[in-house]
Structures are given as C-alpha cells and as structure tokens.
Amino acid sequence: MQAKRTLANVLRRDRSLGASDPDDRFATxxxxxxxxxxxxxxxxxxxxxxxxxxxxxxxxxxxxxDRLLRAxxxxxxxxxxxxxxxxxxxELSAALRQLGKETEAAEKERALTExxxxxxxxxxxxxxxxxxxxxxxxxxxxxxxxxxxxxEAMATAKLRAAVEAATLARAAVISQxxxxxxxxxxxxxxxxxxxxx
Length: 197
Prior knowledge:
- By secondary structure, the protein is an all-alpha fold.
- It has helices at residues 2-17, 22-177, 186-193.
- The protein is rod-shaped, with a radius of gyration of 72 Å.
C-alpha cells in the first residue's frame, strides 16, 4: 500500500511539473523514472507479499469453510442423535407407564387372589365343620336306627311269641271243648303251617 501511495505522489508531481521548462521536464522525468523504478521495485515485493497474503487468507478461508462444514455436519449428526434420543426416551417413558399400569393391575389381581384364597380356606373350614356335624348326625341316626331295629326285632319276637302262645292256648281250649272240627283264622292257619302271610 505504501508503494502505491509513493507512486501516486510521484505521478502527481510530474504532472504538475510537466508545464515548465523542457530541461526541467527531462530532469523531472529522469528523477521520476528513478523514483518509479524504486517505487516499482518496492511495489513488486509488496504485490508478491499481497498475493501471498491473499493466498494465505484464501487458504485460511477454505480451512474455515471446511471446519464450518465439519462443524455443521457434526451439529446435524448431534441434532439427529438428540432427536433419536428423545424418541427413545419417549418410547421408554411410554413403556415405563405401561409397565407401571401392568404392575398395578397385577398387584390388584394378586390381592384379589389372596382374598379369594382366604375366602376359600374359610369356606373349607366351615364346610369341613358342617361335614363333621353331618357325619356325627348320620352316626347318631345309624345308632338310633340300629336301636330301633333291635327294639322292633324284640317287639316282633314278643308279638310272635304272644301270638303263638295265644294260638296254642286257643287251640288247646277248642280241642278240649270239641273233639271235632275247629275254625281258625287264615293268619293262625298260615302261622301253624309255617308260611307267613
């Protein structure tokens, strides 16, 4: 930049001096040539240096663009991963809620089953007691029935003995009173010949 300014100043001065004497113009032109040559030699390294700086700046811009592109790619990947993580988190939350509901339902079912089992055990105890009482009543009834049968058998035996004694007594009385035919009831006849009615 400094070299460009120097060159511009020399050119301005030459223009302003261009209207004077030809010798001065020549001297001025010579001095301008010398100054231009020195400015030119000063401008070339400056231009080269500017070109190098421009190349370096361009390379830095390219590097920054590459870094920006990589950063943008990483950001996109991170955002996609974040979205996937949010989706997975939402699925896990839903699964956790469902598991909580199922656990609660299973707990209620277990409590209900325990209550039913307790009722069954109580019913079993009650039914067992009732069965025991019924068995006891049946035993007592069987004993009473056996006692009644024994009593009936004794009564039947006594009745038979009484009927037999009465029949024999009557037969004896009748045979003494009559020596002929005697009339007896069918029951007495069947009894005497040994066939029950």
